[in-house]
Specification:
Elements (H helix, E strand, L loop, with lengths): L2 E8 L4 H18 L2 E8 L3 H12 L7 E7 H15 L4 H8 L6 H14 L4 E4 L4 E2 L1 E3 L2 E3 L1 H8 L4 H4 L5 E2 L12 E3 L2 E3 L6 H6 L1 H9 L8 H10 L14 E4 L11 E4 H4 L16 H8 L4 E4 L3 E3 L3 H4 L1 H31 L12 H12 L6 H18 L1 H12 L1 H32 L7 E4 L3
Parallel strand pairs: 1-2, 1-4, 2-3, 8-11, 9-13, 10-14
Antiparallel strand pairs: 3-15, 4-12, 5-14, 6-7, 9-12, 11-13
Length: about 450
C-alpha cells in the first residue's frame, strides 16, 4: 500500500489545524486507498503541548490514518540516532542545523523529510498551523486530493488527470515531482500596513526582494504580485495544470513533494529567515521536473501572536534576513537554471553534489557584495524610520544587529552546503532506522 506523510509543523497553539489536518488525512486514505501518516512536529511550550496531546488523543478513528505527534525531545532522540547511524562528520553541528534553538522554516520541514523516510513514505505533504481550508457547498476543499491524484505519476499519465497541460513534451516521461497550490486571504508577509501608510515606501521595501537587474516593467509587476498568493477569488471547482511550476505560484502551506526530490536535497536550515523553505520549488523548476499547479488554495490568516508587538518585531527580523539572503539565493538559482538537465543523473535523480557546489559558491564573499547587501539593509531601515511608530522601533533593532545580520547571510549558505553534502547519508540512515519507538506513534484505524 502506498504510504504518504501529511505533516503539520507547529510552535504555537493550533488545535483547529490539527483536527482539520486529521480530517484531510482521513479523506486521502478513504478516497485514494493510501496509508496516511499524519506527522505533527510540535515545538510548542509545555501548556500548549499538553493541549495538543489531548487533541491528538481525542481524534476519531480513521481507517488508514496513523498519527505521530512528536515534541522536540522526541525529535531530538530520533535525530541523534539517525545522525549516529549515518556516520557523518560533525554530528553535533548537524544536530544543531536540524533542530536549532531559533525558528527555522527549512529545518522543521527537513525533520519531516527524515521522519517520512523512516516511516517508509513516498511523499511529504506540508500544511501550516496558521492556515485553514476553503469550503464548497459545505464541504472542505482538501489540497491532498489533487496531490495524491498526480504526484509521482509519469507526466504522460498525469496529463489525463488534470484540466490542462502546458508541459514541454520533452519532459513527458518524467514523473510529477511537485504538486502545489497557493493561498487566499491575508498576505503571506506582514507589509500590508506599509502600503496603507505610504504606497511609495511600500514599493521601495517590496522592491528590495527583487533582483536589481530586472527590467522596470517586470519589477513593477512583481511588486504588485508579491506575497499576495492567489488573491481573494474563492474556490468554485478544480482547475489544475501540468507544467513547470513557478515558485511565485505555490506556497509552502500547500505543497507536496516526491521523495525523489527531498530524499536528495534538503531545505536551507537558516534561522529566522522567511522564504528559505522555498528552495526545492526552484530546484524542481530548474531541473525541468514536471509539476502540477492546482487551485485548492489554503486560507491564510495572521495569528494574534504575529500581530503583537513582540511578534511584529520577530517577523520584521525574519523579513530582513529574507532580503539579505536574496542575493545569495539568486546566485544559486541562476546556476541551477543554467545547469538545467545536468542537475539530474542518468537515472533522473537530482545530483546533490552539484547543488551543494552552487550553494557553497554563493557563500563565498566574492560572489555576493557585502557592501551591496549592507546598502539593502540600510535602505530597509531608512524606509521603516520614515513610517514612524513600531516601524521606527523595528529599524532601531535591525540597525543594532547590522553586522550580525550581514555575517549570518553568508554563514547560512555555508551551513546549507554542509547539510546538503551530508543529506544523502542522513536519508539513507533514516530509511534504515525504521522503528517506531522514538516516534511515539498513535495508531488510528487499521494502519
Amino acid at each position: 500500500m502506498r504510504r504518504v506523510c501529511l505533516t503539520l509543523p507547529t510552535n504555537r497553539a493550533c488545535a483547529p489545524a490539527i483536527r482539520a489536518a486529521a480530517e484531510e488525512a482521513a479523506h486521502g486514505a478513504r478516497r485514494f486507498g493510501v496509508e496516511v501518516r499524519l506527522l505533527i512536529l510540535d515545538s510548542s511550550d509545555a501548556p500548549v503541548l499538553a493541549e495538543h496531546r489531548g487533541v491528538v488523543a481525542a481524534l476519531p478513528t480513521a481507517p488508514g490514518v496513523v498519527v505521530h505527534h512528536l515534541d522536540e525531545d522526541e525529535q531530538r532522540v530520533f535525530l541523534r540516532e539517525v545522525i549516529a547511524l549515518s556516520g557523518v562528520a560533525e554530528p553535533d553541528r548537524l544536530l544543531d542545523l536540524m533542530l536549532p534553538n531559533r525558528v527555522s522554516y527549512g529545518a522543521c520541514t527537513n525533520r519531516a523529510f527524515l521522519v517520512a523516510e523512516a516511516l517508509g513514505c513516498t511523499s511529504v505533504h506540508r500544511r501550516d498551523s496558521d492556515s485553514r481550508y476553503q469550503y464548497l457547498d459545505g464541504e472542505p476543499v482538501y489540497p491532498l486530493h489533487q496531490e495524491l491524484l498526480t504526484l509521482g505519476r509519469r507526466a504522460t499519465e498525469a496529463a489525463g488527470l488534470v484540466s490542462r497541460s502546458r508541459l514541454d513534451p520533452a519532459y513527458a516521461d518524467r514523473p510529477v515531482a511537485l504538486v502545489g497550490g497557493s493561498f487566499v486571504g491575508e498576505m503571506s508577509v506582514d507589509v500590508e500596513e506599509i502600503r496603507r501608510l505610504d504606497p511609495a515606501v511600500y514599493e521601495d521595501v517590496v522592491g528590495l526582494s527583487i533582483p536589481g537587474d530586472y527590467p522596470e516593467i517586470w519589477r513593477r509587476n512583481l511588486i504588485a504580485e508579491s506575497f499576495r498568493g492567489a488573491g481573494t477569488a474563492p474556490y468554485t471547482g478544480d482547475r489544475s495544470t501540468l507544467m513547470s511550476v513557478s515558485p511565485m505560484r505555490v506556497d509552502m502551506c500547500n505543497i507536496a513533494l516526491d521523495r525523489e526530490v527531498y530524499g536528495q536535497v534538503p531545505l536551507p536550515p537558516a534561522t529566522d529567515t522567511i522564504g528559505s523553505d522555498y528552495f526545492l520549488i526552484h530546484l524542481v523548476q530548474a531541473a525541468r521536473l514536471p509539476g502540477v499547479l492546482h487551485n485548492r488554495h489554503i486560507v491564510n490568516f495572521h495569528t494574534s501572536e504575529r500581530r503583537s508587538d513582540a511578534g511584529f518585531l520577530a517577523y520584521q527580523l525574519r523579513f530582513a534576513k529574507f532580503l539579505l539572503a536574496g542575493p545569495h539565493f539568486a546566485t544559486v538559482y541562476a546556476a541551477l537554471k543554467e545547469a538545467g538537465d545536468s542537475l539530474l543523473d542518468a537515472e533522473g535523480r537530482v545530483r546533490a553534489s552539484a547543488v551543494a557546489g552552487f550553494v557553497r559558491d554563493s557563500a563565498d564573499g566574492t560572489r555576493v557584495d557585502r557592501a551591496e547587501n549592507a546598502g539593502r539593509l540600510d535602505a530597509l531601515t531608512r524606509s521603516y524610520r520614515t513610517l514612524g511608530g513600531r516601524w521606527a522601533a523595528a529599524a532601531g533593532v535591525l540597525s543594532s544587529l547590522r553586522e550580525q545580520l550581514l555575517d549570518e547571510a553568508g554563514q547560512d549558505m555555508a551551513e546549507f552546503a554542509l547539510l546538503t553534502e551530508a543529506w544523502e547519508a542522513l536519508t539513507r540512515a533514516s530509511r534504515r532506522h525504521r522503528h517506531p519507538d522514538p516516534l511515539r506513534e498513535s495508531v488510528k484505524g487499521n494502519a
